[in-house]
Amino acid sequence: MKKLKAPMLALLMLLSVDTFAMDNKQLAFQLTTLFRSSRSIVTKNKPFIGNPRESLKGESPDDFIISFLIQTKKIYKKTTGSRFPPTDDTPEGVLRGHLIDSIVSVIIKAVKGQYEGVFKYSPATHFKKGVNVYDNKFLPARYAVEVMKEFNARTEGKALLKLTAPDKLLVKRSNAPDEWEKKILNSIFSKAGYERGSPFSEVTTYKGQKAFRQLLPEYYKKGCIGCHGAEAGQNGPNIHQSGKGYPLKTLGGGISIIILMDG
């Protein structure tokens, strides 16, 4: 068998890495977009936020989750122009399956009342003491944390989802950006000409291991501003690390995903 010359071998290895990165770029966007699609349903469902179990109104938990997934996939398709890919035995399909299973698990727990009494003021947040308006509410941010915890456990750390935000906008302390996320939030997304809403992707390292990373930016919309805004009746000053509220279209943070790579 004819041996490949060193330059050709190096080129093939480089192409392989680039292809792997491109595959992960697509996979990461699929996962973050499906997650965001599911969270948008929670954001719009005020009775569910108030009390998931009581919001069923005679609907069974199974019927509720079927409807929830159908709506999630409709929003995903509207956002991307494509259907959410299958959950199969490929590495990519397995990760997609883990996310679907995590969403289902969290919604089922919520409508069965398993989170009741769990969410109260905590020093793990930047909530001002005495702010109890969010006690026992199944907020979109709390939904996000629960789904991501489930997903990260199911993947055994091979892929990780996390919400993050600029320091001044932090609400939950554990969402503080790491150095890579800070760089993207503070420098890349603010660059003149950077396409608003476009995710930033990079092959880098995570805790000493080669990793594909992507950060999908999020901006304050109408559904966010009641909690994060600065106007009368809005709670930004009571929940942000900065003690301030912020207007619509502010870069509020991003959905961060890490996919560990071999080698």
From TrEMBL:
- Using the record, list the residue span of the signal peptide; answer none if the entry has no such feature: 1-21
Origin superkingdom:
Bacteria
The chain positions of domain Cytochrome c read: 203-263
Keywords attached to this Swiss-Prot or TrEMBL record, sorted alphabetically, are: Heme, Iron, Metal-binding, Signal
Fetch the InterPro entries from UniProt.
Answer: Cyt_c-like_dom, Tll0287-like_dom
As one GO molecular function, the record gives: heme binding
Q: What is this protein called?
A: Cytochrome c domain-containing protein
